[in-house]
Structure formats: C-alpha cells, structure tokens
Description:
In chain A, helix 2 packs across helix 5 and helix 3 packs parallel to helix 4. Helices cover 27% and strands 31% of the residues of chain A. Chain A has a single domain, classed as Stationary-phase Survival Protein Sure Homolog, Chain: A (3-Layer(aba) Sandwich), CATH 3.40.1210. In chain A, the strands form two sheets. A nine-stranded mixed sheet of chain A has the order 3-4-2-1-5-6-7-11-8, with helices on both faces. A two-stranded antiparallel sheet of chain A has the order 9-10. Chain A contains seven helices and twelve strands. In chain A, strand 6, helix 5 and strand 7 form a beta-alpha-beta unit. Chains A and B meet through helix 3, helix 4, helix 5, strand 8 and strand 9 of A and helix 3, helix 4, helix 5, strand 8 and strand 9 of B.
Amino acid sequence: MNFGILAHKNYSILMQNRKKIFVTNDDGIHAHGLQVLIEEMKKLGDVLCIAPERTQSGMSHAITFSNPVSLEQHRDEPGIKSYSLTGTPVDCIKIALDRFYTNEKPDLIVSGINHGSNSSICAIYSGTVAAAREGGINNIPSIAFSSVNFEKNADFTHYSPYVYSISEKIITQGIPEYVFLNVNFPHTKNIKGTRVSHQAKGVWIERFERRTDPHDREYFWLTGNFKNFEPEAEDSDEWLLKEGFATITPLKIEKTDTESISKLSFLNS
Amino acid sequence: MNFGILAHKNYSILMQNRKKIFVTNDDGIHAHGLQVLIEEMKKLGDVLCIAPERTQSGMSHAITFSNPVSLEQHRDEPGIKSYSLTGTPVDCIKIALDRFYTNEKPDLIVSGINHGSNSSICAIYSGTVAAAREGGINNIPSIAFSSVNFEKNADFTHYSPYVYSISEKIITQGIPEYVFLNVNFPHTKNIKGTRVSHQAKGVWIERFERRTDPHDREYFWLTGNFKNFEPEAEDSDEWLLKEGFATITPLKIEKTDTESISKLSFLNS
C-alpha cells in the first residue's frame, strides 16, 4: 500500500468537501459588516471575498463595462482569500465566477452586512442586495444581509449567530430557483428571533433639497422618506423589524408577468 | 357674456387635457434614440425630457445620494422642455416627480430608444429599462424602448410609427399594477409587426479579458456572451426579434416570492 497516495487522496476528498463561500458587500472592503460576515463564513467553509474598493451604496445592479476594473489582494490565509475590486458589487460576483470559480460554482454567496436597512422597496436600489440577486440569476443560493443601524461605529457582532445559522441552513437546504434571500436585522441587541416575511408595500417619496454653490449655481441633494402603504401588516419586514425580529424575505427576481401577456394582446399588430 | 373669460376657460381645459409625457434614456441627452422618442411623444402631449448628461449604460437601478446632482436646460419650446442631469436614469425620474410634476404625475413615462438590445436578462442591467421600472414603482404607465442595433450612426426613425402606436395605446388603456413594458426593436427596417412576448430565459456568461498596463499592472475588461436557455421558444423576445418582430415584454417588478415563504419556514426561529 502506498499511504502517501492514500493520505493525499483523503486530503483531496477533505478539501473537495469543504464548502466554497463567496462574500461581498457594497460598503467596500474595509467595512465592519463585511468582516463580521467573513468571520462567520470561515466556520462554514473556504471563503473568497471580493468587495468593492470604495462604497457602492445605491449602485443597485450596475455593471462596469465602459472602463476596465482591477483587483488588489488584501488577505491570503488558510481558508480566507480577500481582494478589493475597482467596480460594483455585481462586478464582484461576475469576476469571481469567471476568474476564481472556474471549475465549480460557490455553494453560497453572502453579501453585507450592509450598514443601513434594505427592507421593502429599498432592496431594488441596494448594491448589497444586487450582489445576492446576481447570485440568484446564476442559480447559486444567495443571501443579502443588512442592518437597520447605519451609525458609523455600529457594532454588528451580535448578528453573528443569526448570520451563521441562516447561512448554514441554506447551504444544506438550498433556495427555490430564481429566488434569493434578503435578510434585515433590527437595531436592538435583543433580537426576538427570525421570521420569513414579505416586503412591506411602499415607496420612497423623494425630496431633492436645493442648494446653491459659491458661484450661485443650483444643485440638488437626493433625500426622502419611505412611505409604508401597509403599516399594519404584521407579516411585513417593516413591521417585524420594528418589533425586534430579524426578517428573511425571499425575493423573486424580476421577470415576465405572464398574466399580462393576454391582457396586453391589443398591442399585437 | 365675457368672451375673454370663456376663451380663457376653454384654453385652460384644453391645456388640462393635454397628456403629460416624460422622456429619458441612459445613452445621454445627445443620443439619437432620445430625439426620435421626443419627436413622437410631442404628437401625444406635452413633453418633459430629463436625460443623463453622459452615458449611463449598465447603470441599472442606481441612484445618486453621496453626491449632489445638477440640471442644465437644453430646450424650451411650446410642448417640449428638456434638461440634462448629472445623474442616473432613475435619478432623472425621481427629480422629475419631485420638482416638475408637483401637482400631477405624468400620464406616461418613456425611456430610450436605447442603442443596444435590452431583451431577456439584459433588462436587469440596463439604465434605460430601470427608468421605466422606476415609473412602474410609482404606478405610472412606463415603457422602455431599445433597438438591437448599437451601431454608432444607427438610424432609428423607422421605429417611429411603432413608438407612437404603442405609446398611444398605453396612454389610453394603461398597464397592470407593478408591471412595466420592455420593448425591443429588431435590426431590420422591414419590421413584421409587434408581439407581446416573454423574455427568453438566459444568462450572460462573462469573460473578463486580462490586460496589463504600461507599468505591468493587470486590469480586466468585462466582456461576455448571452446564453439563451430556450433558443427554440417561439414566443420569446429573443426568437421574435431574430424573426423581425418588435417585442413587447411586460415585466413584473421584483417582489416577495410568496410561494417560498412556507417552503422556507425552517428559517423561522
């Protein structure tokens, strides 16, 4: 017998069984929320992190194709490699799939923990959520994590057990096709539990605040308030977050509304 | 009788009955496709156009809130006002709703005509399509127009009758809630007709082309190919476009997948 070869084989099998977990965010490579995510994911498998070099909040599902992008390595330790990318969160997913996971897709994509809520309609504007959506488009179980707490020095470590538990269950059980998870954490440290919820129906009512520069030219800052159309809905993410629950909303990626096809037949010509 | 007042009243009613149409795009204020759209829309009502100052292709549903934005007026004629904005297509919708349509929402939002196809999954990355989505979120009938022809000097004037006809029908008949239309035109000048279709199921397979700069640092250009998972589906936008039809795809804005809520109950804790 050749124990050398056997040992090598076993090692190889062991390595093959390690889960491959990809981590990104939209707050950038240095964000606290990203570090919390990496710490939990390394308990579950081999972590590759590619995160934007700078903040990409509000970048939604944007991609970079009019300029090139570049990578810089930050960490190279057993079980953790991390890089920054001069691109968007969705670029991070795309370059990971093309240049790092060349043989096999990752088992899980996680994005966040975002500094700021992505509940309800906010999900559509978020770069953090977009990264998970891009994972879903590629048929990879994907989860976006966000906290309603966007204080600069927020401490997210109390979310760790929830991040671990949700991720571990999803690696095992998977997610329905063309769906991804949008998880939001409440501000409180006394989280009551997790609830699979639906996103509250609502809209942002924008206000562009007008200012003038020193040369008397006007400019506008985007501000606004979220208007919740169903503030009493007890199974909505907005309601549950206010009650102190972490919410897990399965989002169906935008697609053809088959019901409308017959309703709109007057457009055929 | 005071004919002066009567005439004024009639004039006022006439003005009130004029439809209010908002126009934007992602190729920027100077794009040919935008001009074609404005020309058709002015036949249908009073046009306000706010378009990005520069190209915003691939910007998806991004918004600008870390920097301010500014407006510059380009046209001020009877029935047409146009401005450029130092922001994204979705910013254009938001500033229009906040600062221009202060009393009443527009009757129709149109975006495009995009220089390049936005069929199938491309819709999710497109700034042109995102503007229409933002209209849909605000419960305004909204249509994105794109052409598969992305040649620099492409002539889109042969699309005009279709742009007019689809827009006129939608102003009259409306669109189901939380749905917007994604229209794509084929390359040919001999368009066979219009078809309400579904988006072909597919994905972009990315390739990041590696290059090195003069200082031997590597960088990557995003390229890729569309992979159509259902090339034989005769009611898909991809198939119909190849056959020479203009396709009209009703897209349902991403939302909670209610079916998944019970399937994922193992995540409640």
